[in-house]
Amino acid sequence: MRTTTVIIGAGHAGLAMSHRLTERSIDHVVLERGEVANSWRTERWPSLRLLTPNWQTRLPGLAYQGGDPDGFASTPEVIEFLQGYADATSAPVRTHTTVTAVRAVDAGYEVATTEGVWRCDSVVLASGACNRAVVPDVAAGVPPSVAMVTPMTYRGPDELDHRGVLVVGASATGVQLADEIHRSGRPVTLAVGEHVRLPRLYRGRDIFWWMDGSGVLDHRYDEVDDLVRARNVPSPQLVGTPQRVTLDLNTLAERGIRIVGRLGGIADGVAQFSGSLANLCKLADLKLNRLLDTFDTWAAAAGRNGDVDPPHRFAPTATAASPTLAVDLRRGEIGTVVWACGYRPDYSWLALPVLDRRGRVIHDGGVVRDAPGVYLLGTPFLRRRRSSFLSGADQDTQELADHLLQRLTQSSPPCAPGSLARQA
Questions:
Q1: Among 64, 65, 275, 341, fewest CB within 10 Å belongs to which?
Q2: Element (H, E) at 8
Q3: How confident is the prediction for the chain on average, in pLDDT?
Q4: Could you give the domains of the chain?
């Protein structure tokens, strides 16, 4: 089978790229191991909602049109949106087709799948950055009496042991799960490392209204001082709820969740926590206030002060004078550990010399190095800060599709418009 471009993954990024290629009359196929939006169907917990408000739920050619623009899409709503987008754009998706290898051959690429082999000129890697949950090496020290789950296997507090729960990691996933599990009546301990503190609302507007309007989300990958750092910043402590609540460490502590420092190790069944929690919280507070300064400056310069409440600052993160530094997991207080330590991609099927030592694709704004014609989509800060969110696929795919088309045009003899299309 032959086509010009193979897109791997039918999530939001792969579907958006499919639409862009259709606009440019580039024939292609989208290969998906499951169904459209497969990760949302099979690897997300039921209560999860998008962090971004509905008015930011948009892909090229389709935007949110419901009656709750300031709400946050639930998992079923995200699936419905993506499936509707695939149908509306007539995306050429081949479902239940698992890619087993991508290799360079001749002047193009060979994509082996469970349903046959494709030959193509270009490949778009849109399988996502969250294929595997990170479980640190210290997990080996957890006693057999304590169960372990990740956000990809967690389906709700009712499936957990009735005893206490240790949640490791305090980014968006960690704080959401800690809060949900605590509301079920289980005691929760939250181990906190480096984190990004953000309020849900500032001066009466959603935090994404501020980041969008002030241009923060449009910071480009080639404009930041430390790109590696920017691409590995933890996700912000946010949750999408109808009440638009802020879910920072102060809120969690007030609700009765025990806040401890970063999990440093587990020795003889005893979990040991860092004593640097206060310093990490001060750093997160400092960065938050700098961001709010940016928003205030923009609002004044743009004449938006009349549209929002007066400036204010949030109370510093409170930490215990003598925080808990150890918990004996053998004593029965903790029945489950939830590893909310982030995610990593899975490119075990990618037989190209394009991965760094951590297994991540080496690229320049989505253009993969050392593999002409291979592109990456759907990873944090791919081309802009907004690349980390669903709406970021709009501009990312526009620019990468242009790059792909230019490359095809330069490597092909002159031809009539639309003749790039070839039948499989």
A1: 65
A2: strand 5-8
A3: 95
A4: 5-131+345-411 (3.50.50.60), 142-336 (no CATH)
